[in-house]
Amino acid sequence: MRFDIITLFPEFFKNVFSSGILGKALEKGFIEVRVYDLRDFAEGKHKQVDDRPFGGGEGMVLKPEPIFTAVEKIRNGEEIPVLLLSPQGERFDSHLAERLATQSRLILICGRYEGVDERVIENLITKEISIGDYVLTGGEPAAVVVVDAISRFVPGVVGKLESVRKDSFFDGLLDFPHYTRPREFRGMRVPEVLFSGNHAEINKWRRMKAIEKTWERRPDLLKRRKLSPEEMKILKEIKLSKERKKK
Predict the structure, then answer these.
(1) 36 and 148, same structural domain?
(2) Residue 164 has what pLDDT?
(3) Which of these, 91, 110, 123, 168, could form a disulfide with 139 (CB 3.0-4.6 Å)?
(4) Helices H, strands E: what count in the chain?
């Protein structure tokens, strides 16, 4: 899969993808990342890419001409989805990352300043994406997050795709607790069920803990997820257990 990133600060991406899983994925050719300086597509002596907003107001707005030129040259006649990293965009999550991973190429535009000219959004952008309800100094950190999250669903990037499917948020729940050696540390013991060898019981415990953690930390996820009858029963038992402990 190939990611084409358009930015005002290409130096931001110089080494950000060079280590860890993504570094190996780049070396092996599972993903490709190309970074473009938006100023290279601007006209005039000063290569101006932004200007004051019509109607007045603070800040600067990215001009439409260099963005259109950049996308059209990168596309070179191909139909490639264009994503704008923006606080006003659709909330980025695991399900969206998996859907986007089915594309062979994506163009990412890093927003800056007060945003981009609305004509870009209305006529060029496939989807606006936000990684959270906060504002960054620019879309570059968000682009790194999006590339990382999508890449994990690209075959070959992560050793076993099944491990990705067990991560937090994939099925609408947070991840279950994980333990490793030593079995006991400073009086803190690993739950005995994990040594039982009974995989059915282990899976049941993990499902219960995932539901419990989600209920405690992100109840909004449970409201959006359709729980099975078995999961509803587990959640009911968790709530009853918590009520007993309070008494």
Answers:
(1) yes
(2) 74
(3) 110
(4) 9, 9
Q: What is the mean pLDDT of residues 88-114?
A: 95
Is residue 152 among the annotated active site residues? yes
Peptide bond into 182 cis (omega under 30): yes
Reported as type and span, the H/E element at residue 36 is strand 32-37
Written as six digits, the tokens of 76 are 């070179």
pTM (2 d.p.)? 0.87
Q: Is residue 172 situated within a structural domain?
A: no
Please report which helix (H) or strand (E) contains residue 235, including its range.
Answer: helix 229-246
Catalytic residue among 114, 148, 175, 231: 114
* Same domain for 225 and 149: no
Contact predicate 129/90, CB 8 Å: yes
Candidates 4, 66, 152, 212; catalytic one: 152
Residue 73 has pLDDT above 70, yes or no: yes
Annotated active-site residue 37? The verdict is no
**150 and 101 in contact (C-beta within 8 Å)?**
yes
226: containing domain:
184-246
